[in-house]
Amino acid sequence: MTDAWLPPIFSRVREPLMVPTIDLTIHFRGLPKDPEAFCFVLFESPLAQDGYLIEHGQIFDAEGHLLVESRQLAVVV
Fold first, then answer.
1. Which carries the bigger pLDDT value, residue 3 or residue 57?
2. What CATH number did the domain enclosing 35 receive?
3. Disulfide: which of 4, 35, 40, 52 matches 60 by Cβ 3.0-4.6 Å?
4. DSSP 11-62
């Protein structure tokens, strides 16, 4: 799910972009207490420069416990 969400840069541009992944690191931090409950996600791009971007992602369970952290390096095409 961390690589399937829309990149944050999509909220800042009007024209369609491709943002293929160069590197993706995922850290699993825990399991949800209720696997049927909704999850909350937070994705941000602290840097987008020279045709590349970095994206940090977090996924939380319905109780607010951190389940997954991710870091992605992508190229903007």
1. 57
2. 3.10.129.10
3. 40
4. GT-SS-----EEEEEEEE----SSTTS--EEEEEEEEEETTEEEEEEEEE-T
* Count, residues in the chain: 77
Please give the residue range of the domain that contains residue 25.
8-75
Q: Is residue 1 part of a domain?
A: no
Digit-coded pLDDT (tens) for 10-48: 888 888 889 999 999 999 999 999 999 999 999 999 999
At residue 8's C-alpha, the angle toward residues 18 and 2, to 5°, is 85
Collapse the DSSP code of 8 into the 3-class scheme (helix H, G, I; strand E, B; otherwise coil) and give the result. Answer: helix
- Other CB atoms within a 10 A radius of the CB of residue 74 amount to 23
Q: Is the pTM of this model over 0.90?
A: no
Which residue in this structure is represented by tokens 């940090």?
A: 56
